[in-house]
Amino acid sequence: MKTRAAVAFEAKKPLEIVEVDLEGPKAGEVMIEIKATGVCHTDAYTLDGLDSEGIFPSILGHEGAGVVVEVGPGVTSVSVGDHVIPLYTPECRQCKSCLSGKTNLCTAIRATQGKGLMPDGATRFSYKGQPIYHYMGCSTFSNYTVLPEIAVAKIRRDAPFKTACYCGCGVTTGVGAVTNTAKVEPGANAIVFGLGGIGLNVLQGLKMVGANMIVGVDLNPAREEWGRKFGMTHFVNPNDVQGDLVQHLVALTDGGADYTFDATGNTGVMRQALEACHRGWGESIIIGVAEAGKEISTRPFQLVTGRVWKGTAFGGARGRTDTPKIVDWYMDGKIQIDPMITHVLPLEEINKAFDLMHAGESIRTVVTF
Ligand code: NAD
Ligand code: AHE
Ligand code: ZN
């Protein structure tokens, strides 16, 4: 069949809206009609050629929601008509990682997913007879897409696609970093670096679990007002700090924070986040995705003296099990999504979403089909 999609033909070039060919689902796969998709900074990072796994031509997008329109042979967990969220972190419930109970990083299809391929080693998308690669196993910048059923979370039907799609990455990542990865306890002090589409969700996760001081750090002064809407108690703009930012934050949090989170992707900030942790027990969680070739560093003494460096992918959420619960939290009013969707655009205008993000003007842009 044909489907309308925004194709990234080359790095650093605008996406092009074209009709591509899409093969139907094979055994164990489903076809989804994407109704809405968020544009995450990770899409921009890949389009900008900063992802060591970036492949072109490809159909980006990994924060979608839609409806199952066709199922391949042997599919049992979802049916036509189900409302679903595509998962870049699948959950097969059979691999060593899933069975360990220690991680959400299912390995069943990771090797082919990283090469832009379906598990059988082929692409389902093509344009003028040439393959178009999948992205993060999702390719939600296409009106229709195909995924393995292990990479599809069934959600309640009363959740609006336009907001539920954000649970496919940003909301789950930010809230899950607090609840699953850091396991922040009530009364803890925390610092969040980067108050964008992910960082604001870290803030609301911290508020939800009853954190005490919730400090937000961002270079964009407009993010202070945003942070305060989602539970931030203190704002620090590094440009306004006289002297060393880490010393300032350590003093503000009486010796350092119990938990810090990097939601910038900047390796210098990741170091600041680690060093702003409390001696003896502070934990720093890396959420941000750094450019190819970048490395983190600190004095080993920082770890010898009890600070802990951790990372999180998709907020530690087990795709099929936890994503529907995050949607429930939203529908039950435990967390907010609507105010963070600052812009809604048709697919034809998807390139504006990247401009708005780079200009610091949007929190999340959602593209509808
Ligand atoms: P965003 O562009 O919406 O927000 C980034 C924020 O960081 C902005 O407010 C910006 O002003 C701020 N910032 C940039 N440099 C800064 C600095 N030096 N100091 C303080 N603040 C700074 O991006 P987003 O969608 O929120 O994504 C944030 C990061 O998280 C990206 O690196 C993205 O790729 C990554 N990410 C990771 C996961 C995961 O599973 N680990 C999931 C989603 C996104
Ligand atoms: N491909 C990059 C790394 C990109 C990355 O870390 N992706 C996160 C999700 S970001 C969502 O917005 C992730 O889930 N990583 C775990 C995984 O298995 O990809 C690189 O550096 O090669
Ligand atoms: Zn994302």
From TrEMBL:
UniProt cofactor(s): Zn(2+)
Enzyme class: oxidoreductase
Domain of life (superkingdom): Bacteria
GO BP: formaldehyde catabolic process
GO terms assigned for molecular function: alcohol dehydrogenase (NAD+) activity; S-(hydroxymethyl)glutathione dehydrogenase (NAD+) activity; S-(hydroxymethyl)glutathione dehydrogenase (NADP+) activity; zinc ion binding
Signal peptide stretch: none
Protein name (Swiss-Prot/TrEMBL): S-(hydroxymethyl)glutathione dehydrogenase
Species whose genome carries this gene: Caulobacter segnis (strain ATCC 21756 / DSM 7131 / JCM 7823 / NBRC 15250 / LMG 17158 / TK0059)
